[in-house]
Protein 1
Amino acid sequence: MQAARRKGIAALCLIIALLAGATSAIGVFGRGDGTTESAVSIRGERYEYVTTGVYAFNAERVVAEGVGWDVLTLFVAVPALIACVVPVARGSLRGRLIAAGILGYLVYQYLMYAVFWALGPLFPAFVALYPLAAAGIVWIVSTIDLPALPDRFSDRFPRRSIAIFCGVMALQLVGMWIPRIATGLSGDLAGAGLLGTPTLAVQALDLGIIVPLALATAVFAWQRRPVGYLLAAVFSVKGVTMSGAIVAMLVSAWIVEGTLDVAPFALFSVATLVAGVIAFFVLASVREEALAQEA
């Protein structure tokens, strides 16, 4: 891989990290003073809507969860991506895989923000970030010799663990969201948890993107296909950040509302720890080789 190409990818990662850092910092510190007003949604449900800050006109619960997500991005995802810049510039395979996983997390976060949040001052940043992160993933993948990828991992690659973890995560999301969708379609809008929005955007993204990706990772990793190694590295890193973000969201909502959703908090805390262990073993099994051997 040519030096100019490596440095270009590293520069893009740094730009994305700085933009995501600034955006998430504004979300955390520009959330407003917490003032709310009660209003009825177009579907006839009454919610407390935030009226100040960059996330104004969203339901109070939505803002509380979003700020928690921003905290995880600001203090975990962004520093991790910045830490990948030098290894990526040097051509490290491990560095590129970690960067791709973090970029996958940012694609999901800011695509969700762009289609879920009420229109506000950060909307242009959301629309800029998710395609930039997606482009970064494509650029990184284009530098990896996929057919030769299995040889770049040692026998310590946790094939069974990643397959089981991804399969469980897919089933968990299906089990969580299908009943909620059915509840909403039956007319029980409160049970569906629309939170003042016209549709279930998170559920659409999870079932349309995360579940197929998790199942593909499970199957291809189990079969030792080259793409399975790539997906395993990306999904395990993304699993740590995504599960961690959900935990941060629940804690943030707990601080605002005074009650903790114990079951999902426990579930995703465990998922974060398990994903972290799997990501460690996946990345530890990477063999770094001479740049001359890479395409």
Protein 2
Amino acid sequence: MTIPDMIEKHGFTRPLRLAAFGFAATAIAVAGAGQLSAQAIAAHNSNSPVNYAADRIELQDKQKRVVLSGNVDITQDELRLKAARTTVAYTDAGDLKIQRIDATGGVVVTRRDERASGDAAVYDFNRKIITMVGNVALRRAGDTLSGGRLVIDLNTGISSVDGRSGASGAGPAGGGRVTGSFSVPKKS
């Protein structure tokens, strides 16, 4: 399934391009959710070099993109993205600059003890935002959070999760709701 197909399936017409992305649903602003925020990921240096490996790499020079497929592994500083397929869009005005990475197929983004996963993801380098859609899960230490869409703002360190996975508004097994579990300190 292509990125446009994934986006259409999940009810988004132009990811990360529209201001009205609609985070009015559930956000991680509830008590205790700070443990699952993107604070660790927000400290990420998005100016670091991007390294990649894949089973197949196709340079589409006229379209200014690189398609990586098969066991894709992309790293930047301590941030790591794994997926079945990615498309890397870039500009070439004297030096190459990555604009965005679109990923599909078991997408996993990790940094230290945080792990986010979903069906598809977009990393917008200009806005420093990572958006994941479809069966998303955010895990940190013993805490978990699941929903339909996850947005990690690397500028502010705020992560937002809502239950909307498709145009109908229904999310994963939670029926369009965000679900999670927070660990609590053990009493001795």
Protein 3
Amino acid sequence: MIKINDLNFSYKRNKLVTNNVNLNIQKGYIHGLLGKNGTGKTTLLKLIAGLLFPDSGKIEVMGFNPQKRQVGFLSNVFFLPEEFDVYKMSIEDYVKTHAPFYPNFSMDDFDDFLNEFEIYNKKEKLTSLSFGTRKKVIIAFGLATHSKLMILDEPTNGLDIPSKSQFRKIILKAMNEETSIIISTHQVRDLHNLIDSIIILDEGNILLNASNQEITSKLYFGVATEENAQSDILYSEESISGNVFVKENKENLESNIDIELLFNSVFQNKERIKNLFSNSNR
């Protein structure tokens, strides 16, 4: 789906944002893009979407060069930025204006997604809606385009707790084997039980790019009261259930990913994690 080789990009007068990034992103997965604020997540997404152009290196998305902005590329990519402006038009007029650019757009699915978000009046002006409700409309539209690549930058910002649950539900509804969804967020709890793959970015470098299955095959997430918690611990912290930890999974034990623990363990053991997952970023 996406192949990135030796990618470099910098804004004028600023430090390098992406530094020789190499990354493969497969179709059929929901990818979580994680990183601290200011580490280049949004920049990387804009480069993939063809909204920014690399200084050097190569990006290939579905066989297209995003920089060329070809119709076959644009009609199969939907990008939701964290912040966006809306014109003084109704929801139905927004759809009439934008849907023709997406040949796979489904009005039935759009209506279904709006209903999931409890939005029932398509004659309402977008400018009269709260920011969170506007975002739900745009998310519903984006998923209804059935684009092969959907890029969502901080999609749960502005959503209340029930809406976040609805968001996870409709994302799973829209997903299929030919689709790739990239969700960038710093609210890792919002991705719980949703993503299939995790990418962690740090200062323009990829620290981790692995599927959930690969992560749990190489790392074990547990509680320190367990007998097997005595060695190879990468990270631990106190919790209500006890001293939770991440360790190398040398015993091939089964566990469930804790995204926050994974994130913290990666940043405390950058080189060790990169070596452990050395084949994941290629």
Protein 4
Amino acid sequence: MCGVYSPAFECYNNEVMTPKRKALLILFVSFVLGGLAASFIFPQYVQIPRVPDVPFQLGLDLRGGLHLVYEADLKEIPSPDRDNAMQGLRDVIERRVNFFGVTEPSIQLQGEGENRRLIVELAGIKDPGQAIQLIGQTPYLEFAEYKENYEEILAQNQQVLDTGEGEIENPFQSTPLTGRFLSRADIGLDQVTQEPFITLQFNEEGSSLFEQLTEKNVGLPLAIFLDGALLQAPIVQGVISGGRAQITGQFTIEEVQKVVRELNAGALPVPITLLSQQSVGATLGAQSLQQSLTAGLLGFLLVAAFMVLVYRIPGIVAGIALVLYALFLLSLFKLIPITLTLAGIAGAILSLGMAVDANILIFARFREELQEGKNLGAAFQEGFRRAWPSIRDGNITTLMVALILFWFGSSFVKGFAVTLSLGILVSLFSAIFITKNMLWMFWDTKIAKITWLWK
């Protein structure tokens, strides 16, 4: 009894229709999905009803925008609380950026200990100055209490005022209560003077901290600073529970509205300083995108031409499979969606090489089987079986490296790792399902008998 991989042609006569029917079904589904993918990617050229028009998400280097690096001041934050403070800072800046109307902002944290930075990437920004001003003017709200030796400090400050010699020392010290615990800020009006003031409502943790501060400082002033400026230092008359506080002063209604709006958008848990900024123009981004697309298309055509020249019919099959591979991959970029950068496009182009590598392994094994005298069907089966371990191991190791790059890399490296990983997975589908089943369609045809087209 002939085995599945027997080289005897007659052994496939009764079984050949089954794999061909399976191949036909798989190819039909693949080409239908490819058509839908093409319509999804290029809706302006291929219009299919009810297929949404979803744009590609382009990164800073392709769309243009703003790259900002901020340094966080963590000197006053206890070491155990620094991670939470930085995460709170990231959340606040993200809310601020969302208020500005930026789509797909990239906000990342870097560093450890006291040396930590915030990286903000805003793609598509038309007014970089306004964006910088928006982030930089976000208020830093903090409550401060008297230092233990405040009486001595006050006496020294008075002496400095009297003599005009020396420097004034701040008698207040920071407390854990900052704007990170703020739930909401509102505008209030004094019923007698009709002067506006600011009301603050803290969250549950902030309410507990505020109650502890007022209990500790009964009879003493509790200073309120906004962006380092002393707004007021009211004397605590008693313990205040419920987490509500007021900021009064010589404010205009416009000043109060501005502060309330910014506080509600997010009071920063720690102060930040702008270290550097880099603006990428939309024209430069468009040029980079065009160059990347040209490189990708040229690479695709060269690879396809190489496959056809070297492997002939299998090379043509591989070219068609690579077209479907590209359509499926670009569709995934839109569906997920993936923010495409120059590094991400490089990862996608590299995965194209991985897809070709899988086909080359398959075709090389296939040729070896033909040269040993096996018929086309047996060579198909044995070639794929022998090539699979190499394809599997090579792609798994590349995926592992991509995961490591994603886990430890920066934003650009992560973009490269994501597109490379997706490309590898799609290339496996392309090689194992599409290429294999397209080759099966030549089984028992006149083309299959033309030896030079296969060897």
